[in-house]
Amino acid sequence: MSVARGGRPTRIEPLEPHPGNTYLPFAKLVDLEKIDNNTYRSIAPAFAPGGPVGLGRSYGAHVFMQAAWAASQTVEPGFLLHNVSGNFILSGELKVPFVYKVHTIRNGRSYCTRTVNVTQSQGKGICFTCIASFKTLEHEQVDAQERHDLWQTYASVLKDKKPSDFPEVPSMDLPFYWKRREETGHNDQFPGLQCRKVDMSAFNKDKHPLDRRQLIFYRTIGDMPTDGNMHLCAHLFASDRNSLYIVANHFELGDYFTSMSSLVHTAIVHSPATATLFGADIDPDNPMSPLDDASGRWFCMEAWGSRISGGRAVYNCRIWNSKGEHIATAMQDGLIRYAADPKKPTDEELKFLEATAKRWGSRGREAKL
């Protein structure tokens, strides 16, 4: 199927409704069927961005987080995820379950390592592969991070607001989908997480694309068990939410690109498990921040693009908890192309891209260390 600019489908008839686009509790979304001690199969269908007007492929973070969850089934108690890096090889199919084959690389006293190869339709080969590293808890001797008060830094968009005041994240965070949502009132349901998007217009309007930011608040749907690795997998699932769409929008190309795909996604967990847990164990009379909510703790994803070149872009995000702790970092190397034929762009395409880049040049960069 050919695709028009900005993620628009060119099909005449919309896709049929997809059962994965529903508010499913995260614990059910991540659940796996055990085939043998090293092989697992997905049960719940993955989310399809855009639903009937999407591309008909699965949300990449589904296989990313579930591969990590499969790997966690093979480690001893006390080992928690701290790093996952995955390569997306083929687009995820919507009607075929993922099969996860876990391989043990090393079992150490403090660290252990797994690789996971994922397949779907027989004969198509591996669609995703990742390496996941786990570690045991250590005594915290040195802890340093950038001090960052979200409500102070982003006062122009967050003042006097809490996460639940913001609208649900668009199924596809692209101009054509915004317009459709405005006209129909419909937004495809996202499983596993409640995600709220902050309107960053007031903060971003005069900034260079490299200095623009997108905030997304999220928390899990449904009750979560005490397994720390499941909570960490929920953060992995959030870390890719509309990732490359955000980058394209910041560079004012969200309505112009011709193709887009995740290539490599990496997530690093910095904080101990207690700092990453979801739940509602909050004193309503003494909340730490607006992220503390008696009906469920919110986390904040701060996302931006840091490089765009050669048909690719780098997406970055930092994840913050209610105590102001920078609990995790994610980075993605993604494909974004802007020409119908990337090897031979037309004069019209080059002229448009040149004019867009000139608009960026008129905005100064913020001072950085």
From TrEMBL:
Cellular component, GO annotation? peroxisomal matrix
The molecular function GO annotations come to:
fatty acyl-CoA hydrolase activity
**Which family does the record assign?**
Belongs to the C/M/P thioester hydrolase family.
Native organism is Cercospora zeae-maydis SCOH1-5
List the keywords (alphabetical): Hydrolase
In this protein, which residues make up the domain named Acyl-CoA thioesterase-like C-terminal?
225-336
One of this protein's GO BP terms?
fatty acid catabolic process
Would you tell me the protein name for this molecule?
Thioesterase/thiol ester dehydrase-isomerase
What are the Acyl-CoA thioesterase-like N-terminal HotDog domain coordinates in residue numbering?
Answer: 56-134
Keyword Hydrolase recorded: yes
Note the Pfam families from the entry. 4HBT_3, 4HBT_3C
Recorded superkingdom: Eukaryota
